[in-house]
Design goal:
Elements (H helix, E strand, L loop, with lengths): L11 H8 L5 H15 L1 E4 L5 H11 L1 E9 L2 H9 L15 E4 L7 E8 L7 E5 L3 H4 L2 H7 L3 E3 L15 E3 L1 E4 L2 E4 L12 H21 L1 E3 L6 E5 L3 E5 L9 E8 L7
Helix pairs in contact: 2-3
Length: 258
């Protein structure tokens, strides 16, 4: 199971930067970007305010969406009405969330813990930076042409538009960027494409068994995740859970992520 020791930022530099917010937001953002490039995620195991979190996120890139993630039956029902693909995981539901990336447009996802679940609620991550070692060149090329639905982020909360699709893999700056939302498969695939989608699902299962990264974020802590390198998920929590996260979607193309 993956360790988070390298990212438990409890040293004097982090304490100094977080204590100095908002004046230090640019420096702190630069530290986070460095970790995102190196490790795919940055876990700030140090309490900051919600305002400080959003200020730092705004230095990392352009915030394009802010969402509260918490168990809420009324909001779940309302969200389900707008969905074309029914019954899939959602931010208001207690069921486990399978490993996935988020919306295609999102470069970095931030998660700030307002209140953690009383039992678990950890953020779970898988690093896909080794994907080229698991597939042949021909298989990688097939995944580069095998598309999943890619809903328009601008229509969030409205009736979804499934007119756009995107490939599972895109090669950029010499490495592969992943777009993987397993419940958004298209209606039909050719045999080879379907075979590779199933092989990719097996890859995710093997990674979960061998290389799971578990981030037990606590109240006031936050995590920033490279959305097209790290798959994220969550175990089931209670329907009565008071877990509350604030999720930010961030565009960061100017930082040159691989």
């Amino acid at each position: 199971m993956g360790s988070v020791a390298a990212l438990d930022w409890e040293g004097p530099r982090l304490k100094s930067l977080t204590a100095g917010l908002p004046d230090t937001k640019r420096e702190l953002a630069a530290e986070i970007v460095g970790l995102l490039k190196a490790d795919g995620y940055a876990y700030l195991k140090c309490r900051i305010s919600a305002g400080g979190y959003e200020a730092v996120a705004g230095e990392i890139g352009t915030i394009i969406s802010r969402t509260d993630v918490l168990i809420d039956k009324d909001s779940e029902i309302k969200q389900e009405r707008t969905r074309v693909v029914k019954g899939r995981p959602g931010r208001y539901r207690p069921e486990p969330v399978r490993f996935h990336t988020d919306n295609l447009r999102v470069d970095v996802m931030g998660m700030y813990c307002v209140r953690q679940d009383s039992v678990d609620g950890a953020i779970l991550l898988l690093d896909t930076s080794d994907v080229s070692k698991w597939f042949t060149e021909e298989e990688l090329a097939v995944l580069g042409q095998t598309e999943l639905w890619a809903p328009d982020l601008e229509r969030a909360g409205k009736q979804e538009d499934f007119s756009e699709a995107a490939p599972v893999l895109r090669k950029r700056n010499g490495c592969y960027r992943v777009y993987y939302i397993p419940w958004l498969r298209r209606e039909a695939y050719e045999d080879r494409a379907l075979e590779m989608l199933n092989k990719f699902a097996d890859y995710v299962t093997r990674k979960e068994k061998a290389d799971l990264i578990r981030l037990p974020v606590q109240d006031g802590e936050c995590v920033f995740i490279d959305n097209h390198r790290m798959l994220h998920g969550r175990a089931a929590i209670s329907e009565e859970s008071r877990r509350h996260m604030v999720r930010l979607y961030i565009e960061t193309s100017a930082f040159g992520f691989c």
